[in-house]
Amino acid sequence: MTFKRVFGIVIDSVGIGEASDANQFGDVGADTLGHIGEHFQGKLKLPNLEKMGLSNIRPDNPIEGVAVVDDPIAYFGKMHETSVGKDSMDGHWEMMGLPVTEPLGFFPEGFPAELIKQLEDFSGRHVIVNKPYSGTDVIHDYGEHQMATGDLIVYTSGDSVLQIAAHEDVIPLEELYRICEYARSITIDQPYRIGRIIARPYVGPDKDHFTRTANRHDFALEPTGETDMDRLKAAGLDVLAVGKINDIFSGHGITEGVHTESNEDGMNKTIENAKKSFNGFSFTNLVDFDAMYGHRRNPEGYGQALMAFDQQLGDFLTNLTADDLVIITADHGNDPGFKGTDHTREYVPLIAYSPSFKHGKSLGIRRTYADFGATVLENFGVSGNQVGTSFLSELTTND
């Protein structure tokens, strides 16, 4: 069967247990959903995801508080990443048929002096910090200094990112974005090849009241080839991007993109898309799980955010028709119960639902995230690059 509209919702960083190659990333034992469930001791209530079969993905080790159901309403499974990294860019590109095969640049000791000097010469501002840091901790520890001096707070993480934080009252957004655009332009190729440059503006009067704003902007590498979104757009289909999807793909393959300020806002805009008349693909990223709770190793906040999402998911589902398909997945893990503050190499959940389904079944373990994009392409009769394997034929309304 085929569908008039397909909705993709990426619950950013919501992994479902260590991947088969987790040992290569130092992530043996990582389990984002499992550890959140344990933290809530049975009080993690996700009724919509539960009836869709979330714990059915791992029936021998269900997520605490989320039951294995006898008759799930959705198709369910999990996907393995084949890209060489575990960054958001890697995961999203792979979903859309473009696995990342060349390792990106990582700078666990900070960025080279030559790169820092280029940033200073271009901006006319001094760079401070230049080492791995938590985004909230770095503005707490250095934000007042930044306000007093106008310096640039430059930091990184275990991902391929260069982040620049500045107070909005000290460095206007336009200037911060211009500096980040320059940083993007000089880090595309080796010896740097950094996945994302991220502008991290914040506000507040002092270190105890600083907050990062929704004016974050990601300057990602341009996709290195054609993605499934490009193919859909070229075929005359609508491709609606919600949240940081536009940043991750640098605007490629998108017919309409909207910025979001939070998970709630992202789901509200996705619900708005469901109420529209369009023919094609709506692709949403909900980044708060990752940015606000995973990296901060906050299982309580993460679980509360999951329960809020589940409630909005119920509202979203009521706006779907039998001609709609929604695919829910993630781009990597970020286990708030694990060591460190970085992404974790995990399987990601795969849930496919349409109101036309009578029963759900297992889709098994998919060898690559690209199966997602391949399914969307087959649904609309668009040729792909054979990187992924469509599971469209496995989705049926039959008993």
UniProtKB/TrEMBL annotation:
Enzyme Commission number(s) from the entry: 5.4.2.7
One GO BP annotation of this record: metabolic compound salvage
Cofactor (UniProt): Mn(2+)
Pfam families, A to Z: Metalloenzyme
Keywords recorded for this protein, A-Z: Cytoplasm, Isomerase, Manganese, Metal-binding
InterPro entries, per the entry: Alkaline_phosphatase_core_sf, DeoB, Metalloenzyme, Phosphopentomutase_DeoB_cap_sf
Function: Isomerase that catalyzes the conversion of deoxy-ribose 1-phosphate (dRib-1-P) and ribose 1-phosphate (Rib-1-P) to deoxy-ribose 5-phosphate (dRib-5-P) and ribose 5-phosphate (Rib-5-P), respectively.
Protein name: Phosphopentomutase
Gene name for this UniProt entry: deoB
